[in-house]
Amino acid sequence: MSSRHRTTVAGPLPLVAASFAAVLLLATPAGADDGQGPGSDKGGKAVDEAPAGVRLTTLLPDRISVDNGSKETAITATVKNEGTEESGDIRLLVVGFDGLTVKNVEGCAAIPEKDLPEGSNSGFSCPVGNLAAKTSKSYDVDATFDLGKTGKICLPVQTADGKKTFWQQGPVPFGTTNPSPNAPATPLLLGTDNTPVAPGELPKTGAERELLPLGAAGVSLLAAGTAGLWWASRRRPEGGVS
């Protein structure tokens, strides 16, 4: 796995537009990882209205595999423009929750810890740019997954300044339906909630859910009204990212 950066996600307003500009990487994102299932937009929903002729969505693999020793896994996050017009300048956020920690996203910048949404543990901001009609861009995501916990991922697609969120997939869970502690790896399925268990017990599979609210802090990405699905932000110190 490649080396990882820590990232932070901002709240309802722009996400570190100025400070991120200085650190955004320009490497070309790689394609899908071997062994992953076909892409799915499960747990996704349109939020703010996109420009005429633009239809933005994201895809996650139907299944991933977690190394039982290192806890490492690889995920491909894809953003698509299924419309008939160019998207304009957009960005993709990749955010981890609970047992799923995003360690690195190729071509993207880690979101500072102080700007992460409440309930998340990691996140990266990916400068997609202007996505042509009927095209997509994929990003290789390095992550770890603690099988003793639930694990969720979230993919919002925003304007480059973060003022609008056109689409948000998740936070959607990955979970195990085939515990295999003695095997080299454990397969996880998208949309399956991995139930935390006591040490020494096998992971269990919970009910599948289309959209999942945040857990411990009771904060939800499913905000009501015009806020759409964007998460509620924590109070930030003066001078912090808004």
Description:
This protein has 242 residues and is mainly β. The chain is built from one helix and 15 strands. The strands form three sheets. Strands 2, 4, 6, 8, 9, 11, 12 and 13 form an eight-stranded antiparallel sheet that branches. Strands 1-3-5-10-7 form a five-stranded antiparallel sheet, with no helix packed on it. β12 and β13 form a beta hairpin. The N terminus and C terminus are likely disordered.
Which structural class should the secondary elements be placed in? mainly beta
Order of helices and strands: HEEEEEEEEEEEEEEE
Q: Largest beta sheet, briefly?
A: 8 strands, antiparallel
Shape: globular
**DSSP strand count:** 15
Cα end-to-end separation: 32 Å
What's the number of helices?
A: 1
Strand content: 35-45%
Radius of gyration: 17 Å
Mean pLDDT across residues: 74
Percent helix: under 10%
Uncertain residue segments:
1-35, 202-242
Helices and strands, with pairings:
Elements: H1 17-23, E1 39-40, E2 44-46, E3 56-61, E4 63-67, E5 72-81, E6 89-98, E7 100-105, E8 109-110, E9 120-130, E10 135-145, E11 151-159, E12 165-176, E13 185-190, E14 192-195, E15 204-208
Antiparallel strand pairs: 1-3, 2-12, 3-5, 4-13, 5-10, 6-9, 6-11, 7-10, 8-9, 11-12, 12-13, 14-15
